[in-house]
Amino acid sequence: MKVGYVQTSPIFGEKNKNFEQVEELLSKIKANLIVLPELFATGYTFISREEAYRLGEDLNGETAIFLKNLAKRTGAVIVAGFIEKDNGEIFNSAIITSNEGIYGSYRKLHLYYKEKLWFSQGNRKFQLFEQKGIKIGTMICFDWIFPESARTLALLGADVIAHPANLVLPYCQNAMGTRCLENHVYAITANRIGSEKRGPDSFKFTGGSQITSYNGDILSSAPSNEISTDFIEIDIKKTRDKSLNEYNNLFEDRRAGFYLK
User: Fold this and answer.
1) In this structure, are residues 209 and 228 in contact, taking their beta carbons and an 8 Å threshold?
2) Segments of the chain scoring below 50 in pLDDT
3) Domain total for the chain?
4) What's the order of all strands across the beta sheet hosting 77-86?
5) Alpha-carbon distance 25 to 230, whole Å?
6) What is the CATH number of the domain that holds 232?
């Protein structure tokens, strides 16, 4: 399975220019799974909910159309962050699409900082999307800091976690080694670079997109300050063995009755 990330530097509010950046980066790519950053088409630093709402779309909007066309050309399942409108609410979401059409969206459950002012909290449970027998789970950015996110996707049967992100804290890239090891799943974290200063807020994004192996190894790591892509082959079958050794199994050894909810 050929998988990879696209690390971009979005221009705030300039969807067409951001589409063009991605199109150029993927002009010669054929793959099975491509992950783009959180909110890749709009930028991140909103000054009001109303501004974010104006940039939002439903699953038939211009971002969805762009990603469907990109999926057809690359042959990939594409997971990418966008602002999802639904019944007057907006969500920090990821759209999942392939050359067969749109599978659906995941709505970020754990909102970071002022996202709580801009977006509604995600209102759907974690779920998987299956493509040619490969099970793909999705989480977005700050979801990583809650171990339950990756664990839930793994318990559902995920082989690989697609992780669109706009990371500003310095911890995630290291932590994903643990997330993947403790669940025996691959993860593709697609981050962005650059900085945005709008209103009172200023964010510097950390780059460092990466592909993390089921055993915690970092298989690919992007620079912290450069637009970048990388694609590698991974062996999904290895995620389906949850044994650490002949005596310990990551799932069978769980003692859920003793854990707090």
Assistant:
1) yes
2) none
3) 1
4) 101-107, 89-98, 77-86, 33-35, 2-7, 228-233
5) 10
6) 3.60.110.10
pTM, entire model: 0.97
Q: How many CB atoms lie within 10 A of CB 6?
A: 26
Residue of 53, 138, 124 whose CA lies nearest to 95: 138
Residues taking part in catalysis: 38, 108, 141
How far, in Å, CA of 103 to CA of 114, rounded?
Answer: 29
Q: For residue 91, what pLDDT is reported?
A: 98
Domain with 188 in it? 2-258
Length of the chain: 261
- How far is residue 107's CA from residue 139's CA, in Å, rounded to a whole number? 8
**Tell me, what's the pLDDT at 132?**
85
Q: Nearest to residue 112, comparing CAs of 85, 92, 138, 88?
A: 92
Contacts of 140 (CB under 8 A, 6+ apart): 38, 81, 92, 93, 94, 106, 108, 163, 164, 165
Q: List the strands of the sheet with 210-212, edge to edge.
A: 128-131, 134-138, 160-164, 186-190, 210-212, 218-221
Virtual torsion, Cα 162, 78, 22, 169, nearest 10 deg: -10
Non-local (6+) Cβ contacts of 75 within 8 A are 30, 31, 32, 99
Beta bridge partners of 226: none
Between CA 48 and CA 50 the distance in angstroms is: 5
